[in-house]
Amino acid sequence: MGRPSDAPAVAVKPADLPVFCPNPAMPLWSSHPRVYLDVGETGTARCPYCGTEYRLEGGARPASH
After folding, report:
1. What is the rounded distance in angstroms from the CA atom of residue 63 to the CA atom of residue 49?
2. Is 42 in contact with 58 (CB distance < 8 Å)?
3. Which residues, at least 6 apart from 60, have a Cβ–Cβ distance to it below 8 Å?
4. Which residues fall within 8 angstroms of residue 17, CB to CB, at 6 or more apart?
5. Going along 1-65, which residue ranges are E strands?
6. Could you count the other beta carbons within 10 Å of the beta carbon of residue 22?
7. Other CB atoms closer than 10 Å to residue 12's CB: what's the count?
8. Quick check: 9 and 55 in contact, CB under 8 A?
9. pLDDT tens readout for residues 8-34
10. Are 53 and 45 contacting, i.e. CB atoms less than 8 angstroms apart?
């Protein structure tokens, strides 16, 4: 169920947070357990199941308290 390393990252907007995989655009047959990914710290995250990369538009967001 891997994803080619040359596949483009899935762009997500701050309004789309929290980011989870599989995302709604993925076909049902390729589903794996839902995992939530932290894109806020570095601006990107990769799913540990399928390798899909998610990239936050505008980059990392500093943590707020």
Report:
1. 26
2. no
3. 39, 40, 41, 42, 43
4. 39, 40
5. 10-12, 19-21, 35-37, 44-46, 53-56
6. 19
7. 19
8. yes
9. 899 999 999 999 999 988 888 778 999
10. yes
Cα 14 from chain centroid?
12
Reported as type and span, the H/E element at residue 60 is none
28-61 per-residue burial string, b: 16 or more CB within 10 A, e: under 16: eeeeeeeeebebbeeebbebebbebbbbbeeeee
The pTM is what? 0.78
Lookup: tokens for 10 = 């899935």
How far is 60 from 43, CA to CA, in rounded Å? 4
Q: Which two tokens stand for residue 24?
A: 């709604």
